[in-house]
Amino acid sequence: MGTGKSSGVNFHFVLVHGACLGGWCWYKVADILTSAGHTVSSLDMAGGGIHPAIADTVLSLQDYNRPLTDFFSALPSQDKVILVGHSAGGFNLSLAMEQFPCKISAAVFVSAFMPLSGTTFSDDLNQVLSRIGNFGDSIFYNANGEDNPPTSVTLGKKFCKEFLLQNTPSSDIMLTESLGRRFPLWQEAISYSDESYGSVRRAYVVAKEDKLIVEELQRKIVADNPPQMVYEIEGSDHCTFFSKPGRLAE
C-alpha cells in the first residue's frame, strides 16, 4: 500500500475488515503505517469487533456498512483517504465508493470481493463454494426460520485454520478464535454507477496462497471488474494482514 518512508508523503488509511473479524485484525499493518507517519483508522463494521450490533439484526448492507458511512459523513469535505478492504469488506468499499467518491483517493481490495453492480454477497459466496466444496465446521444461523436464507454465519475453527490461516502465526490464530464474531448475511444486491464508483481509482492485491478466495477466483474477479493496478503477495494466505503484514504495508 506504500509506507511513504522515502517520499515523506503521509496518508490517511481507512482499513475495513472482512467476515467475522473486526478492526483489530489490522493491528500489524496499522503499526507499520503509523510508525511511518501515516494516519490509520481501523473501523468495526456492524456486529464486528466491539460494535454492539447482533449479527442477526443487521438486515442489509447499508446497516452493516453504517460505521463506514458515519465515518465518511463526519470527514471534512476537503479530506481524502485511501480505503482498504479485505475479503467481504470489498462490498463495504464498493458502497462507500458510490456514496463518497470525492473523499476517496484510492480503494485497495485485498484478496477481496470486488462485486459487479447488481450482484449479491450470496453470488460471490457461491463462487467460493463452487471451488472449495463446503464451509466445513462453520455454522449458519436462520433467525427467520429454516425456510428462509441464513441470516448469519460463524466460521469454524478447523475451517479457518485450513482455508484462511494456514500461513498465519499461531498467536494470531488464537486471537482470531478469541475475538471472532458472527457475520451478518444480507440478501439485497449492490448497485453503483460509473459516475461515482467508477471515478475512484482501484487496486487489487492478490494473495497467492489464499485457499478461500483462491488465486484463480481472484484473477477472475480482476478480469470481470478490472482495476487500474494489480499487485501480488507471495506466501500470503487469505489473511494477508497476519501472514504478510510487511509486504501488505509496502
Structure description:
- By secondary structure, this protein is an alpha/beta fold.
- It has one domain (12-249): Alpha/Beta hydrolase fold, catalytic domain (Rossmann fold), CATH 3.40.50.1820.
- The chain contains ten helices and nine strands.
- The strands form two sheets. Strands 2-1-3-4-8-9 form a six-stranded parallel β-sheet, sandwiched between helices.
- Strand 8 (202-207), helix 8 (215-224) and strand 9 (229-233) form a beta-alpha-beta unit.
- The N and C termini lie close together (5 Å).
- The model has no long low-confidence stretch (mean pLDDT 97).
List keywords for this structure.
250 residues; six-stranded parallel sheet; globular; alpha/beta; 9 strands; three-stranded antiparallel sheet; Rossmann fold
Specify the helix fraction band: 25-40%
Spatial strand arrangement across the major sheet:
2-1-3-4-8-9
**CATH-assigned homologous superfamily:** Alpha/Beta hydrolase fold, catalytic domain
Q: From the alpha-carbon coordinates, what is the Rg to the nearest angstrom?
A: 17 Å
- What low-confidence regions span 5 or more consecutive residues with pLDDT below 50? none
Overall pLDDT confidence:
97
Oligomer state of the chains in this structure: single chain
CATH architecture: 3-Layer(aba) Sandwich
Kindly give the count of domains.
1
Order of helix and strand elements from N to C terminus: EHEHHEHEHEEHHEEHEHH
GO molecular function: methyl indole-3-acetate esterase activity; methyl jasmonate esterase activity; methyl salicylate esterase activity
Organism: Taxus chinensis
InterPro entries: AB_hydrolase_1, AB_hydrolase_fold, MES/HNL
Pfam families: Abhydrolase_6
